[in-house]
Specification:
The structure holds two protein chains of two kinds. By secondary structure, chain A is α+β, with helices and mostly antiparallel strands. Chain A contains eleven helices and ten strands. Chain A has three domains: about 120 residues, Butyryl-Coa Dehydrogenase, subunit A, domain 1 (Orthogonal Bundle); about 110 residues, Butyryl-CoA Dehydrogenase, subunit A, domain 2; about 150 residues, Butyryl-CoA Dehydrogenase, subunit A, domain 3 (Up-down Bundle), CATH 1.20.140.10. Helices cover about 40% and strands about 15% of the residues of chain A. In chain A, the strands form three sheets. A four-stranded mixed beta sheet of chain A has the order 1-4-5-8. In chain A, strands 2-3-7-6 form a four-stranded antiparallel beta sheet, with no helix packed on it. The radius of gyration of chain A is 22 Å and the shape is globular. Chain B is α+β, with helices and mostly antiparallel strands. Chain B has three domains: about 110 residues, Acyl-CoA dehydrogenase/oxidase, N-terminal domain (Butyryl-Coa Dehydrogenase, subunit A, domain 1), CATH 1.10.540.10; about 110 residues, Butyryl-CoA Dehydrogenase, subunit A, domain 2 (Beta Barrel), CATH 2.40.110.10; about 140 residues, Butyryl-CoA Dehydrogenase, subunit A, domain 3 (Up-down Bundle). Chain B contains eleven helices and ten strands. Chain B has a four-stranded mixed beta sheet, with helices on one face. A four-stranded antiparallel beta sheet of chain B has the order 2-3-7-6, with no helix packed on it. In chain B, strands 9-10 form a two-stranded antiparallel ribbon. In chain B, β2 and β3 form a beta hairpin. The radius of gyration of chain B is 21 Å and the shape is globular. The chains are: A alpha+beta, B alpha+beta. Chains A and B meet through α7, β10, α8, α9 and α11 of A and α8, α9 and α11 of B.
Chain lengths: ~400, ~375
């Protein structure tokens, strides 16, 4: 038996013994996700237990080094873990911008002291992070950001306003892009700084979306003190890290086009909604929409697989995250647009028990943001045209 | 299996690219068109010498057994150069159905002949304008010594120049049934066979073949009587996987030529590739081709692996490639604008080759419907 097979057997056994029964079903609403943090809200004791058990093995951040609390797994082992969790329908033990974003950036760019300070609490789900990137006048043109950090010697004083801060009202710390050199050319005077959201002068205010929920905030920063040792990487070199993180974010959001293991395919959904007449979906035009979506979704899933395999084998162009982000989010929007049609008038119910409090129309509206957040589809097309196709 | 080419497959791809662009470019296609020829026999001879006719023939029958992914690399390159040759009709369709349905004797006789380039074949399936592999009406009546074939076949690739016809016929049941279909080896010079060559939009040609009481002996039966549909269907899957590979070549070449044009053509004092309207279309187009690449490789791998999902994957691949090549060949003409409409410029040839390859053995509608039907909706 190969080492990987041994690992697979052990992992399967461990998951079987440690994943609580209620954590073995697909996540179906925002409330059932586990975000951790100082003020963590757990939907059940089992959810808390599941996070803690996985965190103790470092499997909330499976590929991070063991010295920072991570699982120390290589890519192949991490894939095995994902597969085995998928087989069990095991929920993600911790959804975290710390694990997804600032952690990888710290591992790549951060000082040893910053890694020691911030990574272990992320793994344990103790600190919840949010991202301070966009500003009212710096959306697609992110490098045009104006939030200023004045150098006071051993600390900075930050003033400005951030917007689209995901869960800014629930997060404990922010990683934030600020302008540390107002004289320098756009991209050159930017730094990435970290600060506690309880620091005086930090005021997050939720924004209500068309879906009725408020996953984002605008965050006001008034004379916020940030210690100099909380700058990630070099001062004024933050744009490099920001671009790295944006790539990371694109990959994450691009994954929205992939149907989660265990969740219904659009075709199955359509069969439930419309029924089958003479072996076919009862409406031929909707059947055609579903077929086209399923074909594109299969093509997209295989492309995500191919891109991963190419990176592993050292082939491929690499800079494909823009394409995955563009295609995956457009695909996800199409999926929900089709689901709305499949349910007709019933899909319009906003607050009823039958509709699970309007789960479908609210999710449908939320997907409209997929092709905006993390760089709009148009920005992704710009990136492809410029970086891959060489069109100036 | 990882979705990447191994070293051997990569080498085959590169050698095919080199060979075809040197000896079988679009200039060669123009020459064939002007002389009204189907393909250049000397070019086919060179392909045979390089072992291309032997790729799908098993090693115990004198072949290379190199697999669908390997063959797909050559076919993809032939899509870039729009190369016409018996590769598809003989080395892919002929070799596959003989290997899948043939008796030991038939395989031992015919497969080495294909591998060595002594035999060319044409597979005759469809009888109407739309691909419908169970709609076989051509009758094979039992006679004292064998069968008598009566009926018509259409859109037979290389049906007018192959040395061996392979004909799907009905020995039982009725049109629409998958049971009762048999496959026969028919000599194109046999009494009662009338072959009409019909030129097609891609400067190639296909045959309409009528069978007016054509007598064949019992040994002409390829596979079991009335039970050949599985082999036929598997052969069509292989054919469609390679048509998708060819279309991928068409897409890629049309795209790259157009991208180059966007970087050369100036209007309003600037390169037209500096216009965002064209950049976004080019970027979307490139994304679609990236998806297409994954499907082509995945379906070829699935066939090599004997994956049970292969038929579904082939249908997804063929369908998507039909869509992406339509986008590719049309955007290529539109972005070249005026010159794209001229015969002098090569770019229009990609649309002209794409459509017949799309329609052959089923286009988007056929394969989308097949996929859904297989999946129970």
């Amino acid at each position: 038996m190969t080492d990987l097979q041994v690992f697979r057997d052990e992992t399967r056994q461990w998951l079987e013994q440690n994943c609580p029964p209620s954590m073995r079903s697909p996540i179906n609403s925002d409330g059932s996700q586990c975000w951790g943090g100082r003020n963590a809200v757990f939907s059940s004791d089992e959810q808390k237990l599941w996070m803690e058990r996985m965190a103790a093995k470092g499997w909330t951040a499976p590929t991070w080094p063991i010295e920072y609390g991570g699982g120390g797994l290589d890519k192949a082992q991490a894939k095995v873990l994902r597969e085995e969790m998928g087989n069990l329908n095991a929920r993600s033990p911790l959804d975290s911008f710390g694990v997804w974003m600032i952690g990888p950036a710290l591992l790549k760019f951060g000082s040893e002291a910053l890694k020691q300070q911030h990574l272990p609490p992320i793994v344990r789900g103790e600190i919840r992070w949010c991202q301070g990137y966009s500003e009212p006048n710096a959306g697609s043109d992110l490098a045009g950001l104006q939030t200023k950090a004045a150098d006071m010697g051993d600390h900075f004083i930050v003033n400005g306003q951030k917007v689209w801060t995901s869960y800014g009202d629930k997060a404990d710390w922010m990683f934030c892009l600020v302008r540390t050199d107002p004289e320098a050319k756009k991209q050159s005077g930017i730094s990435l700084v970290l600060f506690d959201m309880t620091t005086p002068g930090v005021t997050p205010k939720p924004i209500k979306l068309i879906s009725g929920s408020s996953p984002f905030c605008e965050t006001f920063l008034d004379d916020v003190r940030v210690e100099t040792n909380q700058v990630v990487g070099e001062i004024n070199q933050g744009w490099t890290i920001a671009k790295y993180l944006l790539t990371h974010e694109r990959e994450m959001i691009g994954g929205f086009g992939l149907t989660d293991a265990g969740s219904q395919s659009l075709a199955e959904y359509a069969v439930d909604a419309l029924g089958i007449t003479q072996g076919r979906l009862a409406n031929t035009l909707l059947r055609s929409d579903v077929i086209r979506w399923e074909i594109d979704a299969a093509a997209f899933a295989m492309t995500a697989e191919r891109v991963t395999d190419e990176v592993k084998s050292g082939q491929g162009v690499g800079a494909t995250s823009a394409m995955l982000k563009y295609y995956g989010t457009e695909l996800n929007k199409r999926r929900y647009e089709t689901m709305m049609k499949l349910h007709g008038n019933d899909a319009m119910e906003w607050a009823s028990e039958a509709s699970n409090e309007g789960w479908l129309p609210r999710t449908w509206l939320r997907t409209k943001g997929n092709s905006i957040e993390g760089g709009t589809s148009e920005i992704q097309l710009n990136i492809i045209a410029k970086n891959i196709l060489g069109l100036g | 299996m990882a979705l990447v080419l191994n070293q051997e497959q990569q080498m085959l791809k590169e050698s095919a690219q080199g060979f075809l662009s040197e000896f079988a470019s679009i200039t060669e296609l123009r020459r064939l068109r002007d002389t009204d020829d189907d393909y250049a026999p000397e070019l086919w001879g060179q392909m045979v010498d390089m072992g291309w006719a032997a790729i799908l023939v098993p090693e115990n029958h004198g072949g290379l057994g190199f697999g669908q992914v390997g063959m797909g690399q050559i076919v993809e390159q032939s899509g870039r150069t729009l190369t016409a040759s018996p590769l598809f009709s003989t080395a892919i369709l002929g070799a596959s159905i003989i290997n899948l349905a043939g008796s030991a004797e038939q395989k031992a006789r015919l497969l080495p002949a294909i591998a060595e380039g002594h035999l060319t074949t044409a597979l005759a399936v469809d009888e109407s304008g739309h691909h419908a592999p169970t709609n076989i009406s051509l009758l094979a009546d039992k006679t004292a010594s064998g069968f008598r074939l009566t009926g018509v076949k259409r859109s037979v690739v290389d049906g007018h120049n192959a040395s061996q016809l392979i004909v799907a016929a009905r020995t039982a049941g009725q049109a629409g049934d998958s049971r009762g279909i048999s496959v026969f080896l028919v000599d194109p010079s046999a009494a009662g066979v009338t072959v009409e060559r019909i030129s097609t939009v891609d400067s190639r040609s296909v045959a309409s073949i009528s069978f007016d009481g054509v007598d064949v002996d019992a040994g002409a039966l390829l596979g079991d009587e009335g039970d050949a549909f599985a082999a036929l269907s598997a052969t069509l899957d292989i054919g469609n996987a390679h048509l998708a590979a060819e279309l991928l070549g068409v897409c890629s070449e049309a795209f790259e030529r157009t991208l180059q044009y966007l970087k050369e053509r100036r209007q309003f004092g600037v390169l037209i590739g500096s216009f965002q309207a064209l950049q976004h279309r080019a970027a979307h187009w490139w994304s679609e081709i990236e998806l297409a690449k994954s499907l082509v490789l995945k379906s070829l791998q699935a066939l090599d692996d004997g994956d049970l999902r292969a038929p579904a994957l082939v249908s997804i691949s063929k369908a998507k490639l039909c869509e992406v090549v339509e986008l590719s060949s049309n955007e290529a003409i539109q972005m070249h604008a005026g010159v794209g409409m001229t015969d002098e410029y090569d770019i229009g040839f990609f649309a002209k080759r794409a459509r017949p390859a799309q329609a052959l053995f089923g286009g988007y509608a056929y394969h989308g419907d097949r996929l859904a039907s297989m999946s129970g909706y």
